[in-house]
Every structure is written in structure tokens, then in C-alpha cells.
Design a protein that fits this description.
The chain is α/β, with parallel strands linked by helices. The protein is about 40% helix and about 10% strand. The chain has a single domain, classed as TIM Barrel. Strand 2, helix 4 and strand 3 form a beta-alpha-beta unit. Helix 3 packs parallel to helix 4. The chain is globular, with a radius of gyration of 19 Å. The chain starts with a helix and ends in a 6-residue tail after the last helix. About 35% of the residues are buried. The model has no long low-confidence stretch (mean pLDDT about 95).
């Protein structure tokens, strides 16, 4: 039995499948556009949980990678220089409370808010799991809003992320420039790898290593269509699926995870190899 929320998601995704067909897109144009007012910043891919369907691949391809302070400084500078008045900045991960310099990042963002954009909302999204997360959350400045998913070690029912539309024959005639609801609901994304139409796309780029994240804040007229066509074709959120607790991974993702983890092992072996000169 599905919940009311799951039924609504299923209906939404069926409509999205129909609306994203190439012929309808030619007539009506893309359904969704990347946000101009909201941004999600994935400051780390570290996580203290192992959700099997993680749409940042923190479980499928673990890493200690996190964003550098300099990238936050560049984001703030670009926002000021381009006179962008963000309505909302969301801080995510991974689990953001695991970032080694979380309070430095929040301090920079609060100074930016107070001086240039006092009506802006800054929200940290956390799973709230474990003593460290709880201790960090208790110390956050009062100006920081908190959204706590209160997850635990028991994985919830999920919609499949690791089934790429390009691996599904039913999606051979879709136009990925349509994007999906995430573009408008969540905002553009900033990750350690650059800017994307959504932060999930940045997580996909981490695994597939296209390295096509924008290195500067996109201009107002940059709709990032090229990235949508690349990443939506790999993202399970773009396609219709039924909620499940059984993990499914399509061939594109299996190959990408295998290559990612193989390269990680090779890098580790090289770093740990003895130096002949010592």
C-alpha cells in the first residue's frame, strides 16, 4: 500500500514522462527551468549513514571529499559582483555536520547575508543521526534554519535513483532538456566540482567524471541546457518508478561505480606505495 505522498509522486512522474517526449517539447518547450533565486551547496560527500539509494552516491562510492573554503568565498564574491539576491541557500551533503570547517562556512554566509541580503534564508539539511550531528546542531547560530530528516540505520522506502533513463528503452524519445521538478523546488547546485542546474547533477558528475561543472556562477541567461541533457539522462529522478526497498542499478551506473572505485583503489595504492628514494 502506497502513502498519499507516494501516489502523488507516481502521478507526477507519469505526467513528466508524457510531457518530456521530444515531440511535445518541440511544441511547448522545456517544462522546467533552472532556478535563479535558490541554490543548494553540497559542502561534503562524507556521510555517517549508508542509505542504499543515496542520490549523492555517498553509499555507493564513499569519499572524504569536501568543499574548500575558497570556493564558498568565490561564490559569495560572484553573487555580490552580479548583484544576485538569493532567496534561499541550502547547505547539504553528504552529512553537512561532518565538514571539518562547517562553522567557518556558516560564518562567511552569515556575514554575506547580514551585509548584502538580510532577507535571505540559510538552511542546513541534516540527517540528525549520531552524537556528533546532535552536538553540532546544538551549537549552530540561531540565524541558521535547520531541516532534520531524522534518519536512522533503517533505510526508508525509496524511488530508484541508480536507474539511468538512457538504459531504459521507454525513454528513448524523451528530451532531457525538460529537467524535472528538482530544478524549481531545490535550486541550482554548487558542489566541489562546480555549478550545476541542481546539486544532484554535481553528484552524478563526481561519479561519471565528465568534469563539466561551471567554474564560475552561471549568468542569468545560462539555462545550463547542455548539462541537463547530460545528467538527466543518467538520473533516476527523471524517470518513472515505483517505491521500493530493493536496490536496483542499471548498466550505466554499474559501470560508472566500478570505474570510480577502481580509480580510487589505484590512487590509494599509489599514495601508499613505498618511496624508493627513502
Amino acid at each position: 500500500m502506497y502513502t498519499q505522498e507516494q501516489i502523488e509522486i507516481i502521478i507526477r512522474d507519469i505526467y513528466h514522462f508524457i510531457r518530456s517526449q521530444s515531440q511535445l517539447t518541440k511544441i511547448f518547450g522545456p517544462k522546467y527551468m533552472r532556478s535563479q533565486k535558490s541554490i543548494e551547496i553540497d559542502i561534503t560527500y562524507r556521510c555517517n549513514l549508508r542509505c542504499p539509494n543515496c542520490n549523492r552516491s555517498c553509499t555507493q562510492a564513499p569519499t572524504k571529499e569536501e568543499m574548500k573554503i575558497e570556493q564558498i568565498e568565490d561564490f559569495i564574491k560572484d553573487s555580490i559582483d552580479n548583484n544576485i539576491k538569493w532567496e534561499r541557500i541550502r547547505i547539504l551533503g553528504g552529512e553537512p555536520t561532518l565538514h571539518t570547517k562547517l562553522f567557518d562556512i556558516l560564518d562567511l554566509l552569515l556575514k554575506y547575508k547580514n551585509k548584502y541580503n538580510p532577507n535571505m534564508h540559510i538552511t542546513i539539511f541534516t540527517n540528525g543521526y549520531g552524537n556528533r550531528a546532535k552536538e553540532i546542531l546544538a551549537k549552530l547560530p540561531k540565524e541558521i534554519e535547520i531541516t532534520n530528516s531524522s534518519k536512522n540505520l533503517t533505510p526508508p522506502t525509496f524511488f530508484h535513483f541508480n536507474i539511468a533513463p538512457r538504459d531504459d528503452i521507454l525513454y528513448r524519445n524523451v528530451d532531457c532538456s525538460n529537467g524535472c521538478w528538482i530544478l524549481e523546488a531545490c535550486g541550482i547546485g554548487l558542489t566541489p566540482h562546480g555549478y550545476y542546474p541542481c546539486a544532484i547533477a554535481g553528484g552524478i558528475d563526481r561519479i561519471f567524471n565528465f568534469d563539466i561543472g561551471r567554474k564560475k556562477l552561471p549568468s542569468h541567461d545560462d539555462l545550463m541546457i547542455d548539462q541537463l541533457k547530460t545528467f538527466c539522462n543518467l538520473c533516476g529522478h527523471f524517470r518513472f518508478s515505483l517505491p521500493s526497498k530493493q536496490l536496483k542499478i542499471s548498466p550505466s551506473w554499474k559501470s560508472a561505480y566500478q570505474a570510480y572505485n577502481d580509480n580510487l583503489s589505484k590512487s590509494k595504492d599509489i599514495n601508499e606505495a613505498p618511496n624508493p628514494g627513502q
